[in-house]
Amino acid sequence: MSTTRIIFGFHAVISRLRQHPDSVREIYVDAGRSDQRIRSLASLAESRQVRLIFCEHDRLEKMAGGSRHHSVAAIVDQTILASSIDDVLDALNGPARLLILDGIQDPHNLGACLRVADAFGVHAVIAPKDRAVGLTATVYQVSSGAADTVPYIAVTNLARTMRQIKARDIWIVGTADDAEHDLHDFSIHSSVAWVFGSEEKGMRRLTRETCDQLVRIPMQGGVESLNVSVSAGICLFETFRQHSGKINNGN
Ligand SMILES: C[S@@+](CC[C@H](N)C(=O)[O-])C[C@H]1O[C@@H](n2cnc3c(N)ncnc32)[C@H](O)[C@@H]1O
Questions:
Q1: 250: pLDDT confidence band, cut at 50, 70 and 90?
Q2: In this protein, which residues make up the domain named RNA 2-O ribose methyltransferase substrate binding (predicted)?
Q3: For the chain, does the N or the C end have fewer beta carbons within 10 angstroms?
Q4: Mutational test site, ligand 1, from 105, 175, 217, max ligand atoms within 8 Å of CB
């Protein structure tokens, strides 16, 4: 028997319908809405043969349990995009791009990290099973569908997983505002795993020590550090920029 979960919001529900229509059991829509957005969703659901149920606003509120639902929810089967890092790496036929998140607590940050991971072609997001938020309904919603496109792999021992990644010739770059190397002067390896720390404490000591190199994003103002998803966006954009430059220059 497969486990189900509830996802909320137009982006999350539409993305799930497009990526994994067979996993969508039913969709709930606020009966008070009949605008164009709802009509497009209804026609997409019909084309994928998924039942759309118009219900009272209160029912959606209860289903959402405090999350913002934007008048739409869906009951879906849990999808597992990949169960191990080896699954992901074995399926690649080019350089790897990975994102390692060491203990993100805030679902908004994890959702935003998944979103930038999707935008910049990350092959998997890896995080510890314990002391990290995991794929909650809010993460799904904030990720705007990226939780359905980027494999999220929760591991028991992050440092051990990092060593496995290194053994596959992937360069591991940790990020910290006190790192010696500056992102400006940093040539990013073709296969790279970026590591980001938690909101409050940054990377744990062992995680930091297991990195091949540490890099900082230069900042000008008075704040000590950037938000983790903003940092991930900057580093992944820079990776994308350098790697596409290499392709364009024929290197
Ligand atoms: C909010 S910061 C953590 C701040 C925490 N107080 C610390 O001591 O690291 C969350 C994560 O974003 C990344 N980050 C934030 N600012 C950065 C910067 N200027 N350069 C590199 N990474 C940064 C790091 O991965 C950091 O662990």
A1: very low
A2: 6-82
A3: N
A4: 175
Reply yes or no on domain 4-77 having CATH 3.30.1330.30.
yes
**What is the reported pLDDT for 249?**
53
In which band, very low, low, confident or very high, does the pLDDT at 248 lie, cut at 50, 70 and 90? low
How far does the centroid of ligand 1 lie from the alpha carbon of residue 216, in Å? 8
Distance 198 CA to ligand 1 centre (A): 8
Cβ contacts of 96 within 8 Å, gap of 6 or more: 88, 89, 123, 168, 170, 191, 192, 193
Q: Which atom of ligand 1 is least distant from the CA of 195?
A: 25
Question: What stretches of 84-227 show up as alpha helix (H) in DSSP?
Answer: 85-90, 107-119, 137-142, 158-167, 205-210
Contact 59, 6 (CB under 8 A): no
pLDDT in tens, 152-186: 999 999 999 999 999 999 999 999 999 999 998 88
Distance in Å, CA 184 to ligand 1 centroid:
17
Pocket perturbation via mutation, ligand 1, pick of 226, 227, 230 by most ligand atoms within 8 A of CB: 226
Write down the domain spans for the chain: 4-77, 85-248
28-40 in b/e form (b: 16+ CB < 10 A) is bbbeeeeeeebee
Model's pTM, two decimal places?
0.83
86 touches 160 (CB < 8 A): no
